[in-house]
Specification:
With about 280 residues, this protein is α/β, with parallel strands linked by helices. It contains 8 helices and 5 strands, in the order ααααβαβαββαβα. Bound molecules: 2-acetamido-2-deoxy-beta-D-glucopyranose (3 copies).
Length: about 280
């Protein structure tokens, strides 16, 4: 039962993550369906929509990485980051032993989970979408998108905050709720090391980042989750059709070469610095 319920949520989240990228690709269209409390989740709708977008769509993978997949069983990954965990198993063992992988009861117990993914786009300014966004069951925000002072336009609820080191707000409590899940989206091995060093208060590594990430970041490890790179793989390979071949033994920084870059951060405000992704 629990697995089934979790699978359903995974489906919803995976689909919406995919839709984030999709909406970035198609910036000309901006469609935000208004939440309707009278409609429940139609049976199988998520799977049907996902199947339309993604060939061979499967919900077999957990949304967040979990220790048992690297400790009890060695789960081999075909790809290195950002599409897999190959080569990062050791740091993952240390990191996953202090973070969690479960969904909070407040989300787990929902019968119908309608999600809103809120980006950093300037078009949200003066949109008065705040109440509509807060009306969704799960609100997912990206990077350091501000909330305070913009509640009328972007809402105040944050169920999940997705980020990577360079896009993290220096204070994880500043723009989130006390129970917000802080979801690391790993792009490179440095990202695991950064998170592990911070949570274990070890010596910080400064080199190898795209720009200086926060070196002090006071988060409760129980709120931290690691997004399963499988969903990056699915998005890249099956939705965006990016070339999936990774350079062998290349320098760390060159891993970014396989990522698409956005030409211009035209829709971001000065308070929410743009990022190459998300
Ligand atoms: C689905 O899986 C089959 C068998 O693994 C493969 O032949 C086919 O190309 C896949 N289709 C897509 C769209 O990925
Ligand atoms: C938002 O509305 C205020 C007050 O009406 C106005 O001064 C401001 O220019 C608007 N901003 C945008 C980005 O439309
Ligand atoms: C929908 O229901 C939730 C809780 O069940 C409530 O907080 C929210 O205000 C409702 N939204 C609308 C638009 O009625």
């Amino acid at each position: 039962m629990i697995n089934k319920a979790r699978g359903k949520l995974l489906g919803v989240l995976a689909l919406f993550l995919v839709m984030v990228w999709y909406s970035i690709y198609r910036e000309d269209s901006f469609y935000f369906p208004v939440a309707d409390n009278r409609t429940s989740c139609p049976q199988g709708e998520v799977q049907r929509k996902a199947a339309q977008l993604i060939g061979n769509y499967s919900r077999a993978q957990p949304l967040f990485l979990q220790l048992r997949d690297y400790f009890w069983e060695k789960t081999p990954s075909l790809y290195e980051l950002p599409y897999g965990t190959k080569g990062s198993e050791d740091v993952l063992l240390r990191l996953l032993s202090i973070t969690h992988h479960s969904l909070p009861h407040s989300i787990q117990s929902l019968k119908c989970r309608r999600c809103a993914v809120v980006g950093n786009g300037h078009r949200l300014r003066n949109s008065s979408m705040g109440d509509t966004i807060d009306g969704y069951d799960v609100v997912i925000r990206l990077n350091n998108a501000p909330v305070h002072g913009y509640e009328q336009d972007v809402g105040s609820k944050t169920s999940l905050r997705l980020f990577y080191p360079e896009s993290a707000h220096f204070d994880p409590r500043a723009e989130n709720n006390p129970d917000t899940l802080l979801v690391l989206v790993p792009f490179k091995p440095m990202d695991f090391q950064w998170m592990e060093a911070i949570l274990n208060d070890k010596k910080r590594v400064r080199k190898g980042f795209w720009k200086q990430p926060p070196l002090i970041w006071e988060a409760n490890p129980e709120q931290v989750r690691i997004l399963n790179p499988y969903y990056m793989e699915v998005t890249a390979a099956k939705l965006l059709h990016l070339p999936m071949k990774q350079p062998r033994k290349a320098k760390q920084a060159s891993a970014t070469l396989t990522l698409p870059t956005r030409s211009k951060p035209s829709t971001t405000t000065s308070r929410s610095p743009s990022s190459p992704w998300l």
